[in-house]
């Protein structure tokens, strides 16, 4: 009886998919470590894949999770291709590597499934790179299950169940710190220094990336009708914007007070009785000065995630 085509091609297919996954994760790791901006669509809440990969779920022990994914894909590629490259003792090596392929793909698919759930229900964002990696992982799992004749199906399902449960338990334990209410100052990044001159009418560009916490705070401020008054030439206003990041600050009700600024409303600013910039109008009260996001959260009654990404030295 002829061997099914899937049995003959399962290893080359798995090896090719693992190499694609390796290339993808190497690119993502390089982009993260060098600060490159990934090209990806922006969702309705203003976030994109850059925010996802830079969220609290994007790193483990300070290392991008894409680096761990790259290691997993490399192992899978080796396990898939080695028996094809060795003529002698191929049966023994083939028998040894199939369990590696099965367990490895189970771990990868379970971890990817958890991250997809986080992406959909907590981060509310879209990441094509994450989806591609998840597709690779589940395809590897399918090929490892159906591309080989497993003699004992009972043992196969028992082993699979144990691997899935252990992976979920370890994953939940590892990521338990991601739900902490705030990052310690030592874990946050300092906002860039405003060394250049402000662009006439516009000010300094907002070069920082918002995380889910910054976006959630900005949406809260938007919902309660909070306003920020500022001037394009004001350095503290530029620093306030950097603390929020580009995606989050786009949701802030910002009022330009300086004549010559884009959409300037100096009359409205005078009527508000401002003494300096920036100033915040929150729940009917005026607060003058540059504030940390933790302080703004407290002033506004915000109770959402507070693992803000940036801080400015000297602010509480």
What does it look like?
- This protein is of the alpha/beta class.
- It is 54% helix and 7% strand.
- The chain has 2 domains: 5-179, VKOR domain (de novo design (two linked rop proteins)), CATH 1.20.1440.130; 185-311, Glutaredoxin (3-Layer(aba) Sandwich).
- The strands form 3 sheets. A 4-stranded mixed beta sheet has the order 5-4-6-7, with no helix packed on it.
- Helix 4 crosses helix 6.
- The model is unreliable at 178-185 (pLDDT under 50).
Rg calc: 25 Å
The biggest beta sheet, please? 4 strands, mixed
Question: What is the tally of helical segments?
Answer: 11
Strand content: 5-15%
The largest sheet has its strands arranged as: 5-4-6-7
Cα-to-Cα separation, first versus last residue: 75 Å
Structural class: alpha/beta
The CATH H-level homologous superfamily of the largest domain: VKOR domain
Number of strands: 8
Low-pLDDT residue intervals, each spanning 5 or more residues: 178-185
**Structural shape:** elongated
The structural domain count equals 2
Order of helices and strands: HHEEHHHHEHEHHEHEEHE
Write the CATH architecture name of the largest domain. Up-down Bundle
Summarize the structure.
With 316 residues, the chain is of the alpha/beta class. It contains eleven helices and eight strands. Strands 5-4-6-7 form a four-stranded mixed sheet, with no helix packed on it.
């Amino acid at each position: 009886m002829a061997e099914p085509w899937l049995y003959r091609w399962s290893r080359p297919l798995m090896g090719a998919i693992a190499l694609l996954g390796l290339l993808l994760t190497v690119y993502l790791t390089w982009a993260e470590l060098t600060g490159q901006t990934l090209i990806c669509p922006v969702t309705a809440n203003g976030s994109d894949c850059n925010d996802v990969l830079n969220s609290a779920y994007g790193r483990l022990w300070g290392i991008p999770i894409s680096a761990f994914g790259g290691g997993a894909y490399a192992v899978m590629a080796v396990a898939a291709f080695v028996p094809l490259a060795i003529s002698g003792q191929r049966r023994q090596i083939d028998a040894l590597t199939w369990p590696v392929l099965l367990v490895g793909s189970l771990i990868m698919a379970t971890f990817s499934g958890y991250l997809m759930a986080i992406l959909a229900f907590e981060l509310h964002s879209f990441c094509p790179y994450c989806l591609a990696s998840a597709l690779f992982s589940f395809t590897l799992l399918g090929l490892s299950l159906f591309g080989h004749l497993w003699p004992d199906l009972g043992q196969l399902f028992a082993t699979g169940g144990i691997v899935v449960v252990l992976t979920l338990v370890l994953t939940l334990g590892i990521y338990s710190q991601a739900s902490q209410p705030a990052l310690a100052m030592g874990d946050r990044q300092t906002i860039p220094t405003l060394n250049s001159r402000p662009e006439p009418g516009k000010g300094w560009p907002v070069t920082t990336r918002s995380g889910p916490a910054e976006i959630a705070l900005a949406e809260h401020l938007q919902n309660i009708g909070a306003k920020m008054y500022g001037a394009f030439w004001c350095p503290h206003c530029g620093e306030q914007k950097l603390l929020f990041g580009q995606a989050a600050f786009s949701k802030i009700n910002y009022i330009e007070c300086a004549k010559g600024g884009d959409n300037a409303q100096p009359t409205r600013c005078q009527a508000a009785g401002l003494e300096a910039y920036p100033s915040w109008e929150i729940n009917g009260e005026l607060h003058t000065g540059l504030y940390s996001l933790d302080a703004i959260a407290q002033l506004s009654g915000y109770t959402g995630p507070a693992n803000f990404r940036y801080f400015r030295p000297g602010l509480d």
